[in-house]
Amino acid sequence: MTRMQEMSLDYHFTVEQEVGSSTYAFFGFNGTAGVWRIAALNEAGGWKDRTTVEDMDLAVRASLKGWKFLYLGSLKVFYFLSLSLSPEFVLGFRNAFRHTFIDPCSPKSKPCQIFAMTLLWNHRLFSFPQNVLASITIRVKNELPSTFKAYRYQQHRWSCGPANLFRKMVMEIVTNKRVTTWKKAHVIYSFFLVRKIVAHIVTFVFYCVVLPATVLVPEVEVPKWAAVYIPSVITILNAIGTPRSLHLLVFWILFENVMSLHRTKATFIGLLEAGRVNEWVVTEKLGDALKAKAGAKAPKRPRFKIGERIHLLELGTGLYLFFCGCYDVAFGKNHYFIYLFVQAIAFFIAGFGYIGTFVPNS
């Protein structure tokens, strides 16, 4: 499940964030990591708790005030050391630490990896005539939800929140006079409608409802370019940001179709402001908890409630797809049953809770 999440998130950061930053277009702010100017926060009206995506809410309001955002996929911090290292010293510690030191006085010199110890800052031990430009690359590890239950709650919030925010801000965006019409169209159409609303609904309704239903109604024929070719191109473009996981492309498609069920439901809840619109469940991330539990004595028979592992929506959708597949085997001519059976199996696997790590309540 982690690799599936990686493929989705890589597209989000590589395409939506980096491309939006390089073209100075709007892109949503991720609350995980970011630096804000106090003036931008104040002018945008500060943080608001009207939706479950307060970071995106603030980013949209700041963008409407004319502020621009910059995405840094790899952050480097540069600083000068009043040191000069002998070749013997560099050779001895080149592979020990990830500080990259470049001698600015010698343009032909190559960066070398050295060990940065506190001793290097002690000028009484070394006498060096040159300045050395040093840089350190900052990488922060982040943990993804490893249980299907936690991932469902997270996706509900990520799908319901933007839809609800769109409902509350669409007129504010339309009537804004500080940004261009092109930018308003980009925020409304590309950012909200296509990526946050239409993508979820079309994925589930077309591939899990309409396309299987055409098997039952043979008079309705879906052209191959609409059912196969265009979606295949879009899928490949979405997954190309994670080349090391391209062999999992088919599994990712099946998994995304399963999750589109929850995203569609959450999108409608956000648009209609239904009961769970402001539901905030903190995403459970296990970390080293499982390792700690592994060392302890496990109970003989772990107990779990049926609702913790059995998901009726997935099972119901899987039964519908399986029935359509059986009907296509008996009466169909388009061989849709190949896709319908495989997708039904994916829904059954999710419905019985065999995705991700399962931690029963004991």
TrEMBL record:
The chain crosses the membrane at residues 197-217, 229-255, 310-330, 336-359. It is a multi-pass membrane protein. GO terms for cellular component: Golgi membrane. The keyword Membrane applies. GO terms for molecular function: mannan synthase activity. Keywords: Cell wall biogenesis/degradation, Glycosyltransferase, Golgi apparatus, Membrane, Transferase, Transmembrane, Transmembrane helix. InterPro entries: Glyco_trans_2-like, Nucleotide-diphossugar_trans. GO terms for biological process: cell wall organization. It is found in: Golgi apparatus membrane. Residues 8-212 form the Glycosyltransferase 2-like domain. The keyword Transferase applies. PANTHER family: GLUCOMANNAN 4-BETA-MANNOSYLTRANSFERASE 9. This is Glycosyltransferase 2-like domain-containing protein. It comes from Rhododendron griersonianum.
